[in-house]
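Hi R.,

As promised on Friday, here is the backbone we talked about, encoded as C-alpha cells. Could you run it through your design pipeline when you get a chance and send me back a sequence?
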C-alpha cells in the first residue's frame, strides 16, 4: 500500500490537526484512477491492509474522526490548517523514488495535487531506488516522505515494525507508550478472537492519532494466453523471474 511518513517531532507534523488535514486533503480515488493497472478499482486501507480481511478493521467500525480521514474534504482540511496556525498553508520537501515505476509516480503527482488544493506546497526530491531503501525507509529524510510498504502476511508486522520505538521501520519517530503496550499485548494474546479485538482497537486508536497516512490498494486483473505455461501473478517486483520460469506451449 502507499504510505506517507512524517517527522513527528518537527513542525508542522507534530500537530495532529496538520496530519488530519493532509489525510483529508488526499483523495484516495485519485490515486486509484492514476494507476493504469487498477482500471479504476481499489480499496482504502486502515493500518492493516484491507486484503487481510480477518484483521483489517472495516472503515465503518472506526470512530467518527477516523472515518473522516477517508472523506476527501478540502474545506475541512483548510480549516484544520488555519486552526493549527497555517491559514495560508505551508511548504515542505517530499522525498520519494521513481524506482517503483511510472504508475506509482502518477499516484505521487495526484497526491501532491491534492495537498496543493489545501494550500500545502511541496518540493519533490527524487532518490535513486537503492539510496531510497538505504536512507528514507530507515528514517533518514528531512520532513516528509512517500513510498510503498507492506506485503507481510501477519498483522503484527504492520504494527510492531512501524510503531514501536527502536524499530528501523518506525521512520516517523512514533513514541506512544499506550500504543506500544497495546501492540505488545496482542503479541501475548494467543486466543484469535481476543487478539483480533485488540488489533481492531489498535486500528481505532491509530485512526485518531494519524501518525502515518495510508493510501489505497489496487485491485489488479491479470490475464495471459492459454499457451503461456508456468506463469502466475505474485506479490513483489521480480517480474523477470516470473518470465524466466514461464514457457510457451506452441
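Update: got your reply. Pasting your designed sequence below so it's all in one thread:
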Amino acid at each position: 500500500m502507499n504510505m506517507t511518513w512524517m517527522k513527528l517531532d518537527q513542525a508542522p507534523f507534530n500537530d495532529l490537526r496538520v496530519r488530519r488535514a493532509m489525510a483529508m486533503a488526499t483523495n484516495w480515488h485519485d490515486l486509484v484512477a492514476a494507476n493504469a493497472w487498477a482500471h479504476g478499482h481499489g480499496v482504502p486501507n486502515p493500518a492493516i491492509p484491507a486484503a487481510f480481511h480477518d484483521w483489517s478493521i472495516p472503515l465503518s467500525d472506526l470512530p467518527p474522526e477516523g472515518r473522516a480521514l477517508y472523506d476527501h474534504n478540502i474545506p475541512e482540511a483548510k480549516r484544520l490548517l488555519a486552526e493549527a496556525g497555517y491559514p495560508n498553508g505551508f511548504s515542505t520537501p517530499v522525498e520519494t523514488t521513481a524506482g517503483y515505476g511510472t504508475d506509482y509516480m502518477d499516484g505521487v503527482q495526484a497526491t501532491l495535487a491534492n495537498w496543493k488544493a489545501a494550500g500545502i506546497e511541496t518540493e519533490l526530491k527524487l532518490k535513486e531506488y537503492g539510496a531510497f531503501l538505504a536512507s528514507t525507509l530507515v528514517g533518514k529524510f528531512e520532513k516528509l516522505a512517500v513510498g510503498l510498504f507492506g506485503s507481510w502476511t501477519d498483522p503484527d508486522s504492520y504494527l510492531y515494525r512501524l510503531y514501536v520505538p527502536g524499530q528501523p521501520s518506525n521512520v516517523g519517530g512514533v513514541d506512544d507508550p499506550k500504543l506500544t503496550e497495546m501492540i505488545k499485548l496482542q503479541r501475548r494474546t494467543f486466543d484469535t478472537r481476543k487478539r483480533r479485538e485488540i488489533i481492531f482497537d489498535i486500528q481505532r486508536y491509530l485512526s485518531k492519532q494519524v501518525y502515518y497516512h495510508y493510501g489505497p490498494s489496487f485491485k489488479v486483473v491479470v490475464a495471459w494466453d492459454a499457451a503461456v505455461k508456468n506463469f502466475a501473478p505474485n506479490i513483489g517486483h521480480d517480474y523477470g523471474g516470473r518470465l524466466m520460469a514461464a514457457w510457451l506451449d506452441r
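One thing I noticed while checking it: The longest helix spans residues 192-209.

Thanks again,
M.
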